[in-house]
Amino acid sequence: MKGLFILVLLAALAVGGNIVAFNVWGFDVRVWAQDLMAQDATTPAAVEDTAAETPAAPTGPLAWMQGDAALRDTFAADEITSERYVVFEELVEPEELLNLGEALPNEDLIELYAAARTPVRMIGYCSEVLATIGATCDVIHTEVSDNRDGRLQLSGRLGFAAGVRLGEPEQVENGALISTQVVLPFEGDLRPANEPSSRIDMIRQAQSACDTLRAQFGNCVLTRVNLNIYELWITDLEVLPAGTDPQRIEATARFTVYADSTEWDTQSFNTLVSELVNPS
Amino acid sequence: MSEDQRQKDFAERLKRIHGQQNEPEQAPEPAKPERSSGGFDYNPPKESHVVRNSFIWLAFLGLIGVGGYVAWSALPRDMIEAVAGLAGIEVDAQQATEAGEDPAADIFLQETETMSIQGPIFASPNVVQAGSAPVLLSDIATGIELTDDSTQIGQILPFARNARCDLRQPLAGETVSNVRIENALLSAPLQAFSDDQLIDRLVENVEAVTQDGQDLPADGHMIGLKDSIDVFVTDTSAPHYLVLQNMGPGVIWNVQTAPGTTVAHVAIIGSNYSGVIVQSQDTTVEGLLVGDFVEPYRFGDDSSARSCMIRPWRNPQPDWIGVKNAQLGDTVADNDMFAYSKGYEAYNRWYTGALGIDASTNLVTARDAAHVLVGPVPTAPLQYQSLEGQDVRLMETDHMLTGNAATLDNLSKNLHDSLLQAAVGGDVRLLNPATLERN
Fold first, then answer.
1. Angle made by CA atoms B159, B161, B163, in degrees to the nearest 5
2. Residues of B in contact with A123 (CB under 8 A)
3. Which of B97, B331, B429 to mutate: most A Cβ within 10 Å?
């Protein structure tokens, strides 16, 4: 009996001591409960207020994906979203930014001039997006950086509303967005020249692979095409025919599908796409 | 086995038997103590190990308690909610939430109107001074009409900044008086900014459109706005050498002196283009711009020794919310206060080298202030002087504008827009070209 009493006393001391210690020196044991309630901090009255202000649930073909912003932005075919874009680049001398007859500004102003003029230069590439995968096209983001040789590297993301079929993601069970990125292959020893026809070919090549994936998954979105400039070295050019364009394109495409997550993951999808794009 | 081997073995056996029979008898082994009957005592007397067992149980249950608490904390929220509901704890939590309490508020202190994380705030009419007694502006001055957006100053008198990272040495008999703040709380009808600052702001505004998809900021042209602060000097004991320092936006220090006081020299140390109003033409003025000597601050930069570290940090004090929260375990506040104290150490090193006295000598300091008192509360109040009609000695820079709010808005907008238009090379709307459609 005495032993039982001691045992109960010790248990009470140990548990109670911990609670007291946490409250006095360390963790506040009440925090978890308050924190927990703060997460759903809506009292019944607040719920009613919120419900009154909440807009009506969206309707239409995209209604089912409203709760998932990434999914919606990927498959909202009629809109330009931040999830689908083609990246174009330019390497330019500061003088190339100027209008006819315009003098080169003070060196301190060149970054500002470049930042301010890049959108207009980039909108010109929309013709290539519209000729391939876009129904509408807009510049959604531009950046400027100094190249080591004194030139400026301009880059622009061109968003587009889809001019191609994206498929029917709503048919997928256990669906999850799965993406992978692969470098697109090219013929010959040299990457394609940085010119409109090459860039258009690259975008078409990527879309063609996406069409094949759509046949298998029921949907596919070309969420990125990066057309990065890759410049040949002088030592490369020395052994090439005179007049070879030193600016080449390295194209990378990102494919996104809404697929059954019990069957597919990023790794298996990457394997599939790599074999599709670069058959051995 | 051969016949010879058998005979050999038999001979050896006989020899061993013979040897054993001839050995002397060995002494019997000493008797061992008799063991308790049965070899095991089924009813031994009970030994008491209460203290030892208590420690073992205490440690065991303590571990269970700690482990249980940590495991409980790691449970998913919905599970906690369900169990908490069963345990009846939900009611308390609900009450706390309904009362609008932030759980963190129970642990860490919040800023108040008069005390911030980085020290005290003295909004008008409160006056900051070296002592702790509260002083109001009405205790010091009469005819109070504070500076505002409509105040018209006299002339801007630009002066060249000190390029040597030192200060004029105090003369014998001069008292060095030391004011250090972060922000001034009165307005000032002045803008002063360099071409670099204008360009930086334009790049920022352009990128808001081209990178974030926003419109051009409506107030994007309001660059280099100044604030002002009154500095009342009432100590008549010696000529003053004022060291006026701030870390925030540019400040116009409005120095007002009581009869019988002399301000011999003013040294301004500021993080932006700043200026001063002095009542005597004999007062000499010099100014150090932090950016001329030290790179823009990144966390930790000033924690190590560096030459000419003139960023005027303030030394954390026990009443700062940041210091109190650091003591309560707020690691962010702890890091901030550490950076402040290390920054102050570095600044004090330079200050002591430049002036020969510690940076805490004759110091009046606050994070934000509208009025500062250097000296005792005067027996007869001073006649208050706003910036109205007064000439401002200002660190020289590319653009120094003054006027009422509408004039300043106009002047700076013209500067901003004309450069932006030149940068775009035409219509500013080209920053965001129209969407194109497939034909």
1. 150
2. 433, 436
3. B97
Identify the pLDDT of residue B27.
Answer: 54
Burial of B385 (0-12, 13-18, 19+ CB in 10 A): buried
- The pLDDT tens digits for A94-136 are 999 999 899 999 999 999 999 999 999 999 999 999 999 999 9
Residue of A nearest to B107 (CA): A28
Residues from chain B contacting residue A33 (CB–CB below 8 Å): 80, 84, 89-90, 92-93, 96
Buried b vs exposed e over B140-176: b needs ≥16 C-beta within 10 Å? bbeebebbbeebebeebebbebbeeeebeebeeebbb
User: Which residues of A are less than 8 Å from B84 in CB distance?
Assistant: 33, 36
SS3 assignment, position B159? strand
Q: Closest Cα of chain B to A235: distance in Å?
A: 37
pLDDT of residue A134: 97
CA atoms of B399 and B191, how far apart (whole Å): 8
The residue among A32, A49, A118, A129 with the most chain B CBs within 10 A of its CB, best to mutate, is: A32
Q: Mean of the pLDDT values across residues A242-258?
A: 93
Residues of chain A with Cβ-Cβ distance to B213 below 8 Å are 140-141
Asked if A102's CB is within 8 angstroms of B210's CB, the reply is: no
Question: Max alpha carbon distance in chain A (Å)?
Answer: 105
- Return the CA Rg of chain A: 29
Residue ranges in B116-248 assigned as alpha helix (H): 137-140, 195-210
CB contact under 8 A, A14 and B65: yes
The whole-angstrom separation of Cα A69 and Cα A83 is: 10
Query: In the structure, what pLDDT confidence band is assigned to residue A33 with cuts at 50, 70 and 90?
Result: very low
The domain spans of chain A are: 1-38, 65-277
Question: Nearest to residue B370, comparing CAs of B185, B234, B202, B203?
Answer: B185
Contacts of A110 (CB under 8 A, 6+ apart): A94, A97, A104, A152
Give chain B positions within 8 Å (CB) of A138: 433-436
In chain A, whose CA is at the least distance from the CA of B87?
A33
Q: What is the pLDDT of residues B258-280, one digit of tens each?
A: 999 999 999 999 999 999 999 99
Cα(B47)–Cα(B24) distance, integer angstroms = 50
Does the structure show a pLDDT above 90 at A76? yes
Residues 6+ apart with CB under 8 A from A7: B57
Nearest-CB residue to A14 (from B61, B90, B195):
B61
The alpha carbon of residue B437 is apart from the nearest alpha carbon of chain A, in Å, by 4
Q: What pLDDT score does B21 carry?
A: 66
| Cis before B170 (ω within 30) | no
Write out the H or E segment, with its range, that includes residue A141: strand A134-146
Please state, in angstroms and rounded to a whole number, the distance separating the CA atoms of residues A46 and B112. 28
pLDDT over 80 (residue B75): no
